[in-house]
Amino acid sequence: MTINVLYLAHDLSDPAIRRRVVMLKAGGAAVSVAGFLRDANRMADEKDVPVRVLGHTADGRFAQRIAAVVKARAGLARHLSGLRRPDVIIARNLETLALAKGARAQFGGSVPVVYECLDIHRLLLDDGLKGRLLRAAEGQFGCSASLLATSSPAFVEHYFKSRSNLRLPVMLLENKVLDLEAHPGLWPPIARPPRPGEPWRIGWFGAIRCRKSFAILSEFAAAMDGQVEIVIRGRVSPKEFPDFERQVAQAPHVSFHGAYRNPEDLSRIYGEVQFVWAIDFFEEGLNSEWLLPNRLYEGALHGAVPIALSSTETGRFLARRQLGLLLSQADVAELVRRFEALAAEDYLSLFATLADTDRSIWAVGHAECQALVRQLAALGSTTAPAEAGFIIPSPLQSEG
């Protein structure tokens, strides 16, 4: 039986929203989307998915986003009018969790709600009044939710168990690559050491919002004087980088190639680099320490060796599997030392270990999409899990 999912999206411009909708559809669900918009609407052309724009928000403007949520809540009946009654509502991030109760009321008040939280905003971790108010709001908005979906066990350990007011069963939903084509012949990937005279290429792809990463990588590339090239692709945060093109132009051996299609372009863009930068300082010491980023899974699936800090959740994830180029500290001196000593045979050894992993660690296909939809469908039955803090075992989880 097909289930109907209403997906409340924090940003219809985010490629991850489209990926989740495609995943739900591939699992057999019928999906409607209502969400906020910050840039071009990536859901506008998605076939058989009704999309309602709730309003416009701006990156980094927290007060403006609160005002947009209040306005959307007042007009929710109008925005949701004509949509099919959902069997499940998924609320992505806190701003749409604030709308979930109102959306639920529009359809009779008994629809299960899933809170999907894949990042922990720094204000939620604030020890002052702002943080306490936000955590109280999260607890209030999510008190009647049935399930929390999050992407890293460290988010559960360091926030949801210890700081959040929510007490919900948890489903681990990692940021794995959605690969519905699943051509087995493409795995394992093929090694691509640089030709004689060519540089090592490090890809920094995805959400480009970390000024510290840019500073380290650009200084590192300059210090290596042509032996290393930094290739940047993705969505650049205008708040963090108001003059990004000028900064790139002034950085030797650093190039920016704009946005890309996900998943359509992943094989090509990761195939052009030997390494992927899987380090983030955007919320250093907090969210950045705990996340398992999209680029980790994307890079590894396509044969790009991850570079990570050993002290982070990403570093621990890789260390358990003896993968990647792990750094004790992410600074220019450490990178120069490691890459000046890097020989082709060292890279080939790192690559071979990566290529020997199980593909399911990095990607999900139709079977995992169907498992997700089955778990969502079970929320409306008496068999749905109810123990707070329980991470639901499922085919969506990797080994270890």
Descriptive account of the structure:
The structure is a single chain. The protein is an alpha/beta fold. The chain folds into two domains: 4-177 and 365-378, Glycogen Phosphorylase B (Rossmann fold), CATH 3.40.50; 184-360, Rossmann fold (3-Layer(aba) Sandwich). Helix content is 36%, strand content 18%. It contains 15 helices and 15 strands. It has helices spanning 15-26, 62-74, 76-80, 93-106, 129-141, 153-160, 211-224, 244-249, 266-270, 287-290, 294-301, 313-320, 332-340, 344-355, 366-378; strands at 4-9, 30-37, 51-56, 88-92, 113-116, 147-150, 170-172, 177-178, 200-208, 228-236, 254-256, 275-277, 305-309, 325-327, 363-364. The strands form three sheets. A seven-stranded parallel β-sheet has the order 3-2-1-4-5-6-7. The protein is globular.
CATH architecture of the largest domain: 3-Layer(aba) Sandwich
Shape: globular
The percentage helix is 25-40%
Could you name the CATH topology of the largest domain? Answer: Rossmann fold
What fraction of residues sit in β-strands? 15-25%
Give the name of the CATH superfamily of the largest domain. Glycogen Phosphorylase B
How are the strands of the biggest sheet laid out side by side?
3-2-1-4-5-6-7
Quick check: average pLDDT? 90
N-to-C order of helices and strands: EHEEHHEHEHEHEEEHEHEHEHHEHEHHEH
